[in-house]
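Project standup — Tuesday

K.O.: blocked on the structure for the chain from last sprint. Re-posting the sequence here as requested.
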Amino acid sequence: MEIERKFLLKKLPDNLDQYPHHQIEQAYLSVNPVIRVRKEDDDYYLTYKGKGMMTREEYNLTLTEEAYYHLRAKADGHIISKKRYLIPLENPGFREGFPAPPADYALTIELDIFDEPFSPLTIAEVEFGSKEAAEAFVPPDWFWEDVTYSREYHNSYMAMMDFEGNT
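H.V.: unblocked you, prediction finished:
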């Protein structure tokens, strides 16, 4: 089960290059249901995502490089390319009344900086262990708008954009 929230940013964090990152390329074979192929550095995956915006089923299968490129050629829409930074978020904030996590509790911010034709878009995603934790999460000050429930910021929707606002 994938449980994540998505945010636009007020600004990029300082010293972004100090964090580990991955180069990601992904293409969509279907958007209903979401079936995606992804190249992450030198690893390849086929992913199925169920319905939902914040909470949904997700299954990943490993692919060979040959299988990835074979399936990518069959994809619809735009191929999405982005650099993903993995930024630790130690002692994340949660709204009052939510049980305090252990002192060493940390989350990971997955900060995506999109390449053309989607740049200068940047989106931060944070995954959680429960729906309750996701709903109680208080984002850091450098996050801006919560776009978790805005389909326009889901990669499967973006891949089908014609940049005239139509899909």
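K.O.: great, moving the ticket to review. The chain has three helices and twelve strands. The mean pLDDT is 95.
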